[in-house]
Each structure stands twice: as C-alpha cells, then as structure tokens.
Design brief:
With 201 residues, the protein is α+β, with helices and mostly antiparallel strands. It has 5 helices and 11 strands. It has a 5-stranded antiparallel β-sheet, with helices on both faces. A 4-stranded antiparallel β-sheet has the order 9-10-8-11, with helices on one face. A two-stranded antiparallel sheet has the order 1-7.
C-alpha cells in the first residue's frame, strides 16, 4: 500500500523570534505554529498587549496542508510593504500552519517603501531561520458508532490502516473517535460505511 504524501506539510516545531535593525527602527520578529484563525487572533491580541507602544504589528499567516487559507496585513504601513513580504518568506520556506508577526518600533528615519519591504522581509526570514522546522500530517477526526457484533470488523480496519484511537466508549453502544490521515479519509468512510455509522467531526 503506497503512503499518501499530499497531506504532509512543513511547519514550526515551536515559536521562534528574531530582531532586525535598520536606521534606528527595530523590527521584532515572532513566528508561531498555528492551526486556526482563532489561534492567530489570540496570539495577535497578546502581542498587541505586550508591545502596546510599538508603531505597527504587521503579520501574515498560512493555514492548511496546501496553504489555501492565508492573509497578509500591513497594519498601517504603505500597501503591500509589510504583510506581503512576510507572507513571501513563509511561502519561500515551504511552510504552512504558520503565523509570522513583525513588530516595528520607529527610529525617526523613514525607510521608504523599498526599505520597508526589505526590512519586513529580512525580519521575517531571520525569524524563520531561527525556528526548528518539522514535517506533520494533516488529519481528520472520525466518529464510528457500531454494534458489538461488528467489533472485530471495525478493529481489524483500525489495525490494518494504523488508525490512531483518540477515545473509545463501549458502555452502551460502541463508539470510537479515530484520527485519520486526510488522504485516507474517503477510503475510510467507504470501508466503515458497511459496518458502522460514521461522521466526520
């Protein structure tokens, strides 16, 4: 059985930080592994509180194994001078499920649009270079409900496809929560459909 690979993605093992200085301005870089927009909002909120006296909190993020969900924000800097260069660094590093924030303290000398692009790009690149990169597999959660008589059939599929059991409850009805690779999801729905009630959570 060939191993699916399009559900494998590169992301960060842990948060990382960096610092870039240009003509008195300080650019503090922060990179985080994230899995949802809610997580992004929480991190941005805490950074705004911690660095409340900074001029700008520019950021970009990319989510999903194929990177379809993404956003870049200039936070008051000239259009496309901050968020886009940050997003460009996430993409050129081949990363997803990543948020990079660059917090700027103005040093009194204007950098111009090209200077800003270079500063935000460099701050993002330096921050990502400081991070440890790991490969992860995108998964989905399946809920399987079945009768006791189907126990052997269900468990043999779990074993055959090396599915991770998140939780199990055999008290009244049999119920399993399984973690399934995204690339195996359709196949598993088909395999289980004949023997159990299934739902993707």
């Amino acid at each position: 059985m060939s191993t699916p690979s399009s559900d494998v993605y590169r992301t960060l093992a842990a948060p990382a930080s960096g610092l870039y200085k240009e003509k008195g301005s300080k650019f503090l870089g922060f990179a985080y592994p994230v899995s949802s927009e809610e997580e992004v909002k929480n991190i941005l909120s805490s950074l705004r509180k911690e660095y409340f006296d900074a001029c700008h909190h520019c950021y970009a993020y990319q989510l999903g194994s194929n990177g379809t969900q993404h956003r870049a924000n200039d936070d008051g800097e000239p259009n496309h001078s901050a968020g886009d260069p940050i997003l460009g660094q996430i993409r050129s590093a081949g990363l997803t499920n990543v948020l990079v924030v660059v917090v700027r303290y103005f040093g009194g000398i204007k950098l111009g649009v090209s200077g800003l692009i270079n500063a935000y790009r460099t701050a993002a690149a330096d921050t990502l270079k400081a991070a440890e990169i790991v490969e992860k597999v995108e998964t989905a959660t399946l809920e399987i409900r079945f009768d006791y008589e189907q126990m052997n059939a269900v468990m043999s599929l779990v074993k055959e496809y090396k599915l991770a059991i998140i939780s199990q409850d055999f008290s009244v009805n049999c119920c399993l929560l399984l973690s399934v690779r995204k690339n195996l999801l359709e196949l598993m729905m088909t395999k289980f459909s004949g023997i159990a009630a299934i739902a993707e959570l």
